[in-house]
């Protein structure tokens, strides 16, 4: 099915999520199903996720670089919106650079082309603060500044941003994007991110009472609780197209902290928690990234605001991990 230019009736959005079983994809699928109804949100990934999640609504096995399969599913469900969440993150991408580039770039170019051909009405594609590099200002990193990413992941996200802007300007494709900071969540463990120490630390604090951190204690990074990341993603997709002034990708910020600061917050709840530091290759990646993001453009253009700070995020994480372990 192709979207005609003059569709007058506002048809219910039918949504396809590629990479739905990932850290963000899982919670994004659940939130979108609450808004649009389970049957209107088709989850997909390269393999099945956990049973409950797959059973909640339509699920398809899709490799995000398989154009034919993606088009088949778009036509099968009359999809209007695609969220492309499939990607290889920073640390893993340094181990498999060619595969990371192929997955992160080819999947985006396929979706942008399908949108140009009017098979898709609106596209969401996540970028990352990884697009910044060692020469970018570390504090209050501006929306537009020097960007010389030192990771394959960051390079792919920076290139992807320019492809999004090109398809919007040249073909009118309505593609929207956010530069996520590190995302902290408890429902689905992340895979292969440099910021994922800030997820692991909460689980290890409860499970073992101690954690060996792969970044040094003073490494400040921009972070965000998952609920805020989902709120921002849905908010930018619900915004009126004319309010989306930036078609590369919006800076998105919430909180910034160091391993020492998150440890001190955890100790307010678990006083005996012990941390040790053993920086590895991920320290160089983290050192190349900003510490505090200026996201004033997102706050101006489509009224973004975050809800969680380090204290409230820590309360939520520890409470939910403890009940998850008890109910396991
Ligand atoms: C990573 N969690 O660590 C991702 C994120 C800002 C970092 O994009 O690779």
UniProtKB/TrEMBL annotation:
It holds the Pfam family Epimerase. Signal peptide: none annotated. Residues 15-253 form the NAD-dependent epimerase/dehydratase domain. InterPro entries: Epimerase_deHydtase, NAD(P)-bd_dom_sf, NAD(P)_epim/dehydratase. It comes from the Bacteria. Belongs to the NAD(P)-dependent epimerase/dehydratase family. This is Uncharacterized epimerase/dehydratase SAR0558.
């Amino acid at each position: 099915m192709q979207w005609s230019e003059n569709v007058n009736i506002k048809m219910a959005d039918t949504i396809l999520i590629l990479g739905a079983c990932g850290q963000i994809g899982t919670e994004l699928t659940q939130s979108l199903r609450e808004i649009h109804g389970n049957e209107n949100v088709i989850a997909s990934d390269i393999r099945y996720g956990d049973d409950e999640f797959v059973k909640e609504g339509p699920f398809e096995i899709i490799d995000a670089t398989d154009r034919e399969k993606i088009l088949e599913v778009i036509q099968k469900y009359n999809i209007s919106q695609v969220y492309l969440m499939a990607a290889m993150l920073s640390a893993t991408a340094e181990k498999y650079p060619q595969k990371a580039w192929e997955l992160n770039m080819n999947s985006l170019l396929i979706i942008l082309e399908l949108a140009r051909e009017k098979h898709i009405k609106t596209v969401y594609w996540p970028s990352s603060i990884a697009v910044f590099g060692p020469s970018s200002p570390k504090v209050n990193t501006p929306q537009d500044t020097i960007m010389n990413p030192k990771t394959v992941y960051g390079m792919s996200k920076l290139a992807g941003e320019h492809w999004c802007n090109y398809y919007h300007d040249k073909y009118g494709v309505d593609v929207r994007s956010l530069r996520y900071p590190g995302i902290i969540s408890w429902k689905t463990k992340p895979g292969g991110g440099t910021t994922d120490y800030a997820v692991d630390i909460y689980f290890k604090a409860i499970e073992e009472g101690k954690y060996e951190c792969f970044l040094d204690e003073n490494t400040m990074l921009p972070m965000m609780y998952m609920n805020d990341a989902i709120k921002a993603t849905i908010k930018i997709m619900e915004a009126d197209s004319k309010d989306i002034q930036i078609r590369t990708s919006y800076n998105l910020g919430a909180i910034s902290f160091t391993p020492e600061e998150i440890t001190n917050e955890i100790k307010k709840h678990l006083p005996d928690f012990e941390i040790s530091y053993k920086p590895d290759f991920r320290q160089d990646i983290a050192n190349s990234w900003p510490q505090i993001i200026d996201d004033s453009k997102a706050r101006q253009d489509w009224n973004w605001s975050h809800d969680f700070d380090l204290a409230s995020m820590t309360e939520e994480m520890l409470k939910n991990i403890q009940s998850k372990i008890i109910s396991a």
